[in-house]
Automatic annotation (TrEMBL):
It holds the Pfam family ACBP. InterPro entries: Acyl-CoA-binding_prot_CS (IPR022408), Acyl-CoA-binding_protein (IPR000582), Acyl-CoA-binding_sf (IPR035984), FERM/acyl-CoA-bd_prot_sf (IPR014352). This is Acyl-CoA-binding protein. The lineage of its organism: Bacteria, Pseudomonadati, Bacteroidota, Chitinophagia, Chitinophagales. Keywords: Lipid-binding. Residues 3-86 form the ACB domain. GO terms for molecular function: fatty-acyl-CoA binding. One of its GO terms (biological process) is fatty acid metabolic process.
């Protein structure tokens, strides 16, 4: 099966997990998804509100993946969702 198809399936499966992942894992899923779909985080993605700690955490997690290819991010996302399913 092609990586794009696996990625789409993993997105659907992530919404059906039997238990909610930890906040750290949710940040990892978010950042891998954003890197896979948008590439590197840019300055336009910085939260406007300096007190938006959730937005800042998401941005920082995504920015930490700078340079990772979209394909590598997709594969890591698929692998993480599969790990969470088992």
């Amino acid at each position: 099966m092609e990586l794009n198809e696996l990625f789409v399936q993993a997105q659907a499966a992530s919404k059906l997990l039997s238990s909610k992942p930890s906040n750290e894992t949710l940040l990892q899923l978010y950042s891998l998804f954003k890197q896979a779909t948008n590439g590197d985080a840019g300055a336009e993605n910085v939260p406007d509100n300096p007190f938006d700690f959730v937005g800042k955490a998401k941005y920082d997690a995504w920015r930490a993946l700078a340079g990772k290819t979209k394909e590598a991010a997709m594969q890591e996302y698929v692998d993480l969702v599969n790990k969470l399913k088992s």
